[in-house]
Design goal:
The complex is a heterotrimer of chains A (about 280), B (about 290) and C (about 325). By secondary structure, chain A is mainly α. Chain A contains 13 helices and no strands. Chain B is mainly α and about 290 residues long. In chain B, about 75% of the residues lie in helices and about 5% in strands. In chain B, strands 1-2 form a two-stranded antiparallel ribbon. Classes of the chains: A mainly alpha (about 280), B mainly alpha (about 290), C alpha+beta (about 325). The interface between A and B is large, with 101 and 105 residues. Chain C: Pfam families: ABC_tran, TOBE_2.
């Protein structure tokens, strides 16, 4: 049982942990703060922390100059689309492996996992070539398919571990109660699996949103998502810290919020269920 | 629990996923293998015929190969060392009773959600810039000469950036593992007279060993493939050219597809060696 | 109605045959208990009857109709699972109504039947709750309610009481027995607890390693166990088995004598020994006596007031008419 901890000890823990937590978070905090500064304040010497003239002009400029909304929209389509398609393909597959296991189920799962381990750079040219031949280069469709495929193993694994937690007896009870396969999936399995499916959805949106190998290599202007948009800032031209910060803040804000909701599932998803 | 009827339904439901992944794996893999035995320069004559193992030999004997292996190992090893050691310490700290635990947790894991291009750019410009970066101000404040991070300490800088991104992952997984440690075990050890350090060594660490192994293996897979961090910061110069980046340059920048494909095969083999160990552990978990 | 016939059925999982050819006849309205140690195949047998597993060979008849390949839903049987298997996302009302909903019965009838079942099972006040908010006993009742509303040909129970604490178990045991008396429907009940088997069954089927060791009424099994396995399994505390010189006197290899058929005295008796442990239950006292020449202590039932302690010498005398004789193979000698 948890035992009593002295207040002194708890205070020390708190101070120490908050100190380290803030230190780790600082780069993000600094980026967010800088996004509200003018370019001059952004590189002021000494740096200003909180006491500057807060302004929103950087956000307006970023949108105006670079059409931020288009990149954002691409990110939303790519991350959302690849995840939804992945779930649609993953749910039946994970269902059948979890509830109708055969001798080969384990091998199939392991093999799916192994496709995730394939280094992207090893197949970069073939994919690049196929994309050119099929006219998919710099299209949302092509990238959605690639992002779906690279995350499909994680989707199936996560769903599998969630489905495994649904007791088989409940499905048997449904079968005894007269439910056919359709009713079983519709009335019993789906409602019980929704929390797991939601977590899978969340984590995969995050992974797809942040994916930065294929999105950088297979897009130019039309289908480029935020990862590529931010990378275009890498050659500095004069005073631009505040605008860089504004763009960065906008790119990471949605996913930071989603991420905080999904911390628990993150562990399960990224370790393929090996740590829960 | 299964009857004949449900078995055939299951097979149909698995088919799309299996077929897609099979295609995704086999088609490009076969093409990479095919190109790796060819002299293939799309911009300079295209397919120039079969060359046997020439590309494999040339890739390994090029002056850039061994440095790239060295860089890869330093980056992967450095990040692993930093994230695992700090991750263990941090997860133990976060496991202690404190006020605002939830908020601290959020602060600590936040970097993981930052997209790689953003974190690379933010670190490169706002922290590591030798003129306007925050670290430069800090150095000046203490009267030191600001460091040209990304050229003079390029590998260290990349290790720092990548560690910042992956420390949350290690911490989160180790924290989850630590929380599953039965507190009665620790109390029993305390009753047996074990001092704190040996309680850590004999109970906490062994308990974490599986989680640490998983962190190491998964991170290795991802770290071998880091790309955006280098692409955005140094473009592979100043000794930061990893194997992944070298292959990328061969394929897309110099458009020497045959050579790059041979490199790709090496990368696949390397990743598979790590993957085998990871799969063993995950596989064991499946039986449990 | 609810007559079930198993004809030469077998079940194999891959290479392993868990049920060798087996015949069993269950009459309409009977309360049949499958009992045996864990891993004896009793749950598998129940699941074969339910249709949750396919039989490898042989046939199952329900009311004389071939049902071997009929899917579980069409067999007209209802099952209560060990874990209760309630649908966690549905209220109690919806849980109980689920089989009716699947059968396409109209809403009004559903409502009436659910409420009638809830009344019988004292669940009326809990109809709108989710299973997670119920106690173990209440969940058990919901599971039974879900079975009752279907008006099945037979009820199948798979160790339904094993997740309940001891006091509740006794209560539920009585409730299930009462339910059987009022419904007069066939019930097949799987348990590893011989007390449940003895108290509830019309007919007990004792299983070991997939093989039926004996079928009979509780008292038949108690009085005339077919072999040492059944003799040792039925009855509490267990029957004492004596070998060597003790058995030779009765002209066989092994004799069995139940603790309640041994007379114990502090002054004189046939065999003498030293008390190692005495357990006072109030109503009875169970003595574990080390008898010279026997490897295991002999268990004896004495009256509640029998005042002996560890180390005391006692004398035991068997009731000769209650001695069971077994041959080398462990089979009963008449």
């Amino acid at each position: 049982m948890a035992r009593k901890i002295t207040t002194r000890r708890k205070t020390l823990n708190t101070l120490f942990a908050w100190g380290i937590g803030l230190l780790i978070f600082f780069p993000i905090l600094w980026t967010i703060l800088t996004s509200f500064k003018t370019e001059a304040q952004a590189i002021a010497d000494p740096p200003v922390f909180l006491f500057f003239d807060w302004t929103l002009e950087n956000y307006a400029i970023v949108q105006e100059r670079s059409d931020y909304m288009r990149f954002l929209w691409n990110s939303v389509i790519l991350a959302g689309g690849s995840t939804v398609i992945g779930i649609a393909i993953g749910v039946p597959a994970a269902w059948s492996m979890a509830f109708v296991p055969s001798k080969r189920t384990k091998d199939i799962l392991m093999w799916m996992l192994s496709t995730k381990m394939l280094p992207a750079v090893g197949v970069l040219y073939p994919i690049y070539l196929l994309f050119i031949k099929l006219g998919l280069l710099d299209t949302r469709l092509g990238l959605t398919i690639v992002l779906m495929l690279i995350n499909l193993p994680i989707i199936i694994w996560m769903l599998y571990t969630y489905f495994k937690e649904i007791p088989g007896e409940i499905l048997e009870a449904a079968r005894m109660d007269g439910a056919g396969l359709k009713e079983e999936i519709l009335y019993i399995l789906t409602p019980m699996a929704i929390p797991g499916i939601a977590s899978t959805l969340l984590l995969n949106i995050i992974l797809a949103w942040n994916e930065a190998f294929w999105t950088l290599n297979l897009t130019a202007a039309k289908a480029a998502p935020l990862t590529a948009f931010i990378a275009s800032y890498s050659s500095p031209e004069g005073l631009f810290y505040a605008k860089l910060s504004a763009a960065s803040t906008m790119a990471i804000a949605p996913i930071l919020i989603l991420g905080w909701f999904s911390q628990k599932q993150l562990v399960r998803g990224l370790t393929f269920g090996a740590v829960k | 629990m299964a009857t004949q009827h449900s078995r055939s339904a299951a097979r149909i439901m698995m088919a799309p996923a299996v077929i897609l992944l099979l295609g995704w794996m086999l088609v490009p893999l076969t093409m990479t293998l095919y190109f790796s035995f060819k002299k293939y320069l799309p911009l300079r004559g295209g397919d120039l015929g079969w060359v046997g193992f020439d590309n494999y030999v040339r890739f390994v004997s090029s002056s850039a190969f061994w440095p790239s292996i060295q860089t890869t190992l330093i980056i992967v090893g450095g990040v692993l060392l930093i994230t695992v050691v700090l991750g263990v310490l941090l997860s133990m700290l976060l496991d202690q009773p404190m006020w605002g635990q939830g908020v601290v947790r959020i602060l600590v894991i936040a970097p993981f959600f930052v997209m790689p291009t953003v974190s690379a750019l933010v670190w490169k410009n706002m922290f590591m810039d030798p003129v306007n970066g925050l670290l430069a101000y800090l150095w000046k404040f203490f009267g030191a000469q600001p460091v040209e991070w990304l050229s003079d300490a390029s590998i260290f800088s990349i290790v720092l950036i990548v560690s910042w991104q992956w420390l949350p992952f290690a911490t989160l997984i180790l924290l989850t593992a630590i929380q599953s440690l039965d507190s009665e075990q620790l109390e029993a050890a305390e009753m047996d007279g074990a001092p704190p350090l040996s309680r850590f060594g004999h109970i906490v660490l062994p308990h974490l060993s599986r989680a640490i192994t998983i962190v190491v293996l998964i991170q290795t897979i991802f770290l071998l493939a880091i790309f955006a961090e280098i692409f955005v910061t140094t473009q592979g110069s100043f000794g930061t050219k990893t194997l992944t980046y070298l292959i990328f340059q061969r394929v897309l920048e110099s458009q020497n597809v045959g050579l790059g494909s041979a490199g790709g095969v090496y990368a696949i083999i390397l990743a598979n060696i790590v993957a085998i160990f990871l799969m063993r552990i995950v596989g064991k978990n499946l039986d449990a | 109605m609810g007559q079930i016939t198993l004809n030469q059925i077998t079940k194999s999982f891959g290479e392993v045959q868990v049920i060798p050819p087996l015949d069993l006849q269950i009459e309409d309205g009977e309360f049949v208990v499958f009992v045996g140690p864990s891993g004896c195949g009793k749950s598998t047998l129940l699941r074969l009857i339910a249709g949750l597993e396919d039989v490898t060979t042989g046939e199952i008849l329900i009311d004389g109709n071939e049902a071997t390949r009929v899917p579980p839903a069409k067999r007209g049987l209802a099952m209560v699972f060990q874990s209760y298997a309630l649908y966690p996302h549905m209220s109690v009302r919806k849980n109980i109504a689920f089989p009716l909903r699947m059968a396409g019965i109209d809403k009004e009838t559903q409502k009436a039947k659910v409420e009638a079942a809830a009344k019988v099972l004292n669940l009326t006040d809990y109809l709108e709750r989710k299973p997670g908010q119920l106690s173990g006993g209440q969940r058990q009742r919901v599971a039974i309610g879900r079975a009752i509303v279907r008006e099945p040909a037979a009820f199948l129970f798979d160790e339904p009481l094993s997740n309940l604490d001891a006091a509740l178990r006794v209560n539920m045991r009585l409730e299930i027995s009462e339910l059987h008396n009022s419904l007069e429907t066939t019930m097949i009940y799987v348990t590893h607890d011989q007390v449940e088997a003895m108290t509830m069954a019309d007919k007990i089927v004792v299983l070991r390693a997939g093989v039926i060791e004996q079928v009979g009424t509780p008292l038949e099994l108690y009085h005339t166990p077919r072999n040492t396995f059944v003799a040792g399994f039925i009855g509490s505390p267990k029957m004492n088995f004596l070998t060597g010189a003790f058995a030779e006197e009765y002209g066989t290899d092994t004799i069995g004598i139940r603790p309640e058929h041994l007379d114990v005295s502090q002054s004189e008796g046939k065999w003498s020994g030293v008390v190692s442990v005495s357990e006072h239950l109030g109503s009875d006292t169970f003595l574990h006596v080390d008898v010279n020449g026997l490897p295991d202590p002999v268990t004896v039932r004495a009256t509640g007031e029998f005042g002996v302690r560890h180390g005391d010498t006692v004398h035991l005398t068997p009731d000769t008419s209650k001695i069971h004789r077994f041959d080398k193979q462990g089979l009963r000698i008449a």
